[in-house]
Amino acid sequence: MEVKNWVRLEFPSESENVLFARTAVAVFASQLDFTLEEIEDIKVAVSEAVSNCVIHAYGDCSGNIVVICKYSIDELEITVEDNGCGIPDIVQASEAGYTTIPEERMGLGLVFIHELMDHVAIASEVGKGTKLLMAKRIPRSRE
Amino acid sequence: MNRYKIDNFMKMQSERGGAELLSAETVNQALIISLEGELDLHTAPPFKECIDSYLAKNTALRDLILRMDKIKFIDSSGLGVILGRYKLIQKRGGKLVFVACSPHVYRILKLSGMQKIAYFTDSIQEALSL
Fold it and tell me: Is residue A139 helix, strand or coil?
């Protein structure tokens, strides 16, 4: 991937930063030829990934979240990384309806990310943290 | 028609930012909520508290009608709170209705499977006549 441009955001795992993260990524992505609908998809995916860090990775504790966005001629790549509790079973966590907080959560965060982005990869180590990579093809490269 | 404003909701939202309650009305057995802004992890809790306080105060309320035309963004945190409220009204035999969703919000609601449990209409009048 020949990186044409990139940005790195680091912020504490506070819920108000979910809005900041998705808006900042949307502004970065708007340099590219995405449709408004695709920008909305990216916003939802970033919102889900960062919310997961706030709710699940750190829970009642606080830590930092790092979001790195970069693009090549072909795709926009976004990584969302935390140093939180990690995911014991990534396959289970990616299943629709799976949640550790069934009262108020739908268990759809990772499902949405898979649905709205073209490529998703998750690496996680219990007690050390999680790195989620998601990419969306830039429309021009589909032609 | 009874009409209320939840001062606490407004206060909480002004502290939190992001989403604003435009109005909350009760018509017969329906609670009609109009919201503006973005519903996510940060802004969904006051929305939840607002609806819960109405449902607790008025046990005759069965249906929840959400006017969505001014909702600019929703993710699974916002949807989770709506689902939680649906479970409450379901116990009362009520229904959940989304009114005037934007195309993107509708797409997210559909992705979540919400169309299996809720109704979608273009107007409040239509929602009330279901």
Answer: helix
**B130 in contact with chain A, both atoms CB, cutoff 8 A:** no
Predicted ipTM of the assembly: 0.87
Asked if B73 contacts B107 with a C-beta cutoff of 8 angstroms, the reply is no
Q: Under an 8 A CB cutoff, do A106 and B112 touch?
A: yes
Domains, chain A, ranges and CATH?
Answer: 5-142 (3.30.565.10)
What's the rounded Cα separation, in Å, for the pair A45 and A115? 9
Structural domain count of chain B: 1
pLDDT digits (tens, 9 = 90+) for B6-56: 455 444 444 445 566 678 899 999 999 998 899 999 999 888 988 999 999
| pLDDT, tens digit, 9 for 90 and up, residues A10-66 | 999 999 999 999 999 999 999 999 999 999 999 999 999 999 999 888 877 889 999
Alpha-carbon gap: B125 to the closest alpha carbon of chain A (Å) = 29
Q: Is A35's Cβ below 8 Å from some Cβ in B?
A: no
Distance between A94 CA and the closest CA of chain B, angstroms: 14
Quote the strand ranges of chain A, DSSP E: 5-12, 64-71, 75-82, 119-125, 129-137
Is there a domain that residue B130 lies in? Answer: no
Q: Is A15 in contact with B42 (Cβ distance < 8 A)?
A: yes
Domain with B57 in it: 2-125
Cβ separation B48–A54 shorter than 8 A = no
Contact yes or no for B99/B66 (Cβ under 8 A): yes
Total beta-carbon pairs less than 8 A apart between chain A and chain B: 65
